[in-house]
Each structure stands twice: as structure tokens, then as C-alpha cells.
Amino acid sequence: MTTNRREFIRNVAVGAAGITIGGAISGFSAKSYSRIVGANDRLSVALMGCGRRVGAYYSALKNKENNVDVAYICDVMKKQREKVGKDLNGKVSGAAKLVNDIHEVWNDQKVDAIFNATPDHWHAPGTWLAMQAGKHVYIEKPCSHNPREGELLVAFQKKYNKVIQMGNQQRSAKESQDIIGEIHKGVIGDVYKAVAFYVNNRGEVPVAKKAPVPEGLDWEIWQGPAPHQEYMDNIWDYNWHWYGWTWGTAETGNNATHELDVARWALQVKYPEHVDVEAAKRHFMNDG
């Protein structure tokens, strides 16, 4: 039974709210199930990236019913991985090791799953390299930096038969599911058009300038699969979203991932046959 239980746990999806095993075996609640699995059946997980999204994993990692050991806390910025280590110290199971290089995590055969919360350019490559190393992956949106990477993700998933889930809070939100269900039932009649929009009071993006690499940052690993270049000030932490397509996907991958998906979901359509784009700077004309 031990082998069967471990195989089951290894194939549980890594979700946006964490790793859940509720209702897994008839007659057992998540709480009672967690009591019968042994130490060898615990799911060993690693955090890849400790920036803004990592806090969303805390409650699930701390929940003893999820039967999870945190094996690694990995980030290329020393202060970020140390902060997460301090946040989780004594509050999660597992002797979490703080590391700079994700290759150390991939090479550890005891790690079952990885939470990929890196910048966009690392999403797809980091996920398929993890699958190749035998890991399941929860990946933050967008799942890929470009459409071709998305196709490769599907191919890798089929080849290595691992669980992948992209974080999409709109899809998983009960409110979204309820209203889309009502729309599909005809609550507003024949639906033929959806308008998706996103607004934000973002300030001016600084113009990037050459600067020394910040203390504690491994700039080479941060760049990873992207074309390498000299460090520019105010890039690594968040503004990588906006400086061209080298690392980020701008609002297309940042928020349109959610909003356009809801529109397609409501209309029950797949891919567009034609796209018109109008784009310009209309507020901060000289920003980065």
C-alpha cells in the first residue's frame, strides 16, 4: 500500500491554493488521510522564485493536512530567499535548504514538485526542465513567454507525463465559475460579444540605465534562457515586465492572460481568426 499511496500523492495536481488531497480515497477526509500516510509518502516541494507571488503559497505549505515537506527555497536574490526562509522557519514541515541555483533542486531526485514563480522568460523553460528532471510543476501565469513555448510545454508534458498547472485565479474563483455558468445557461440571452479590459494606476516606469549588479543578485542565472546583457538599473525586481520582450510580456501576459480568458470562456470560443492591435504611449511619454 505504501507504494500505491506514494504514487497517488505524486500525481496530485499542484494548485493555486496549494496541494489538496481532499476526497482522494472514498471514506477518508483530507484530515484522516493525512494521518495514515507515512513519512515516506510526504510530498517534497521546492519554491523556485521568492518574489511577490510566494506569499500566496504560505497557507497551503503550513497546512499539516497537506502532508508537504518544503525541501528547497530557491531564489537568485539572497535577501529574498532569506526572507522566505525566515517567514517559514518553524511553520512548515521539512528542513528547507536555501539555495541560489535551481539546478541543485532539479538534480535532487527526492523533490516531487516545484512552484515556479519566476519572471516570464523562465516560466516555460523552467517548467520543462523541471519535468525533464522528474518534477510536477505549478507555474504562475503566463505559462509561456510566447506561443511556441506553450506548444513545447504540451509536448514535454505528454513526453514526461507530469502534472502541470498554470495559476489562473479567475478560472478557479467560485464567483467567476458561477456567473460564467449562468451566462452559458442563457441568463443574458444570446451572447455574441465580450469586452475585456484592465486598468491600473501604475506610475512612470524609470528609463533603464547601466548600473552595478545589486548585492546578492546572481544576474547570470536571473537572465537564464534570455539573451544575456549588461545589468540595467531597476529591472530585476518587477520592471522586467515592461522593458521589451526579453524577459516580460507586458500587460498581455500580466493581466490580459486573465481578462481575455474570461471573455473566451463566456463566449465558448477557442482561438482568434483575426487580430487588430493599436498600441501607443499616451500617458508618460518618456517613461522606460
What structural class should be given to the helix and strand makeup?
Answer: alpha/beta
- Intertermini distance: 58 Å
Count of all domains: 2
Largest sheet data: 6 strands, parallel
Shape: globular
CATH superfamily of the largest domain: NAD(P)-binding Rossmann-like Domain
Unreliably modeled segments: 1-6, 8-29, 31-37
Order of strands, main sheet, comes to: 5-4-3-6-7-8
Oligomer: single chain
Percent strand: 5-15%
Q: What is the helix content?
A: 25-40%
CATH topology of the largest domain: Rossmann fold
- Helical run tally: 12
CATH class of the largest domain: Alpha Beta
Computed over alpha carbons, the radius of gyration is 21 Å
Mean pLDDT level: 87
Sketch the topology as an H/E string, one letter per element.
Answer: HEEHEHEHEHEHEHEHHHHH
Give me the CATH architecture of the largest domain, please: 3-Layer(aba) Sandwich
How many strand segments? Answer: 8
Give keywords.
alpha/beta, two-stranded antiparallel sheet, Rossmann fold, 288 residues
